[in-house]
Amino acid sequence: MKAALLYGPEDLRVERIPDPEPSDATILVQVEAATTCGTDVKMWRHGHRVLPPYPCAFGHETAGVRTDTGERVLVSDSVCCGACAPCRAGREQICRDLNWVLGGFAEYLAAPAGALHPIPDGLPPHAAAMAEPLAAAVHAVDRGSDAQDVGILGGGPMGLMLTALLTAQGRTITVADPHPERRAQAQALGASATEALTEHELIFEAVGRPETWRAAAAAAAAGAVVVLVGGCPRGSEVAFDPGPLHYDELELRGSFHHARADVDRALAALADGIVPWEMLLGPTIELEALPGALAAPTNGPALKWVVDPRL
Predict the structure, then answer these.
(1) What is the number of other CB atoms lying within 10 angstroms of the CB of residue 192?
(2) How many Å separate Cα 62 from the centre of its chain?
């Protein structure tokens, strides 16, 4: 089969390798679509803590067909251990021994049964693949509060997914992003748009930089909740003004990854039209075009490339 393999930072090669063999613990999935995200760009540029040793397969937003039953499935990018303290407490998204499932940028993927989710009828594979990041947005919304006045810092795919979910709940949303194209996308979802956030009762940071973490906290109203969704680069240090944390009881909450139930909720939201995935749909490309897609500028509208390994 053809697969995109990382040999090191910015060294991505499409090669023919043996087809993966299913086992008692895994099921063979023919990949129909694998969408790209900012984490893929980080993996390509710098590596990532969840990657196995080079050369390695990657790609984690994956939809395809089980070769044993023909069922259409989303392949989640992780399976929790079910035994650690967070898992026992019902917080599997912070499992201490997650089994990461990577390799969507290939024709086939052998995945644990626990990573597979049925795709609702009528939802195309390129839309279903977006359920993985959307599941993280579903979890992030749960980490917030019931405040009606919501600010979102960042109008990329994650920020727009949060916007769609929160707008569907009838909340008043303001999205801050420097790119006019992304502000226009937010407005198309029913949000207000601006270049910089002002005071809000609930804020989601969806960029992942120390300066935007600080900006999110600085834009919070007294007693507000700030949900930090974007992950900062490894080694980052973020200093917050202690005054609002103490005197205004500002709450900073991390939000990481998703649980299995969040993935199913995300698939339902896509199938029901709650999240208009067409807005995020970028070009469909073959595996050989993936390096160029990962190197493409990230300004302009928020879009997700769709890799079809069958091309």
Answers:
(1) 13
(2) 12
pTM exceeds 0.85 = yes
Angle at 189 between CA 184 and CA 192, to 5 degrees: 60
Q: How many helices and strands, by DSSP H and E, does the chain display? A: 10, 18
251 CB burial (10 A radius; 0-12, 13-18, 19+):
middle
As a whole number of angstroms, the distance between CA 289 and CA 71 comes to: 28
Compute φ and ψ for 121, nearest 5 degrees: -60, 140
pLDDT at 67 over 90: yes
SS3 of 278, please? Answer: helix
H helices present in the chain, as ranges: 38-46, 85-88, 125-128, 131-143, 157-168, 180-188, 210-218, 242-247, 260-271, 290-295
Count of C-beta atoms within a 10 Å radius of residue 193:
21
Alpha-carbon distance of 23 to 2, in angstroms, equals 20
Answer yes or no: are the C-beta atoms of 174 and 151 closer than 8 Å: yes
Are the C-beta atoms of residues 112 and 26 closer than 8 Å to each other? yes
For 209-231, the pLDDT digits (tens) are: 999 999 999 999 999 999 999 99
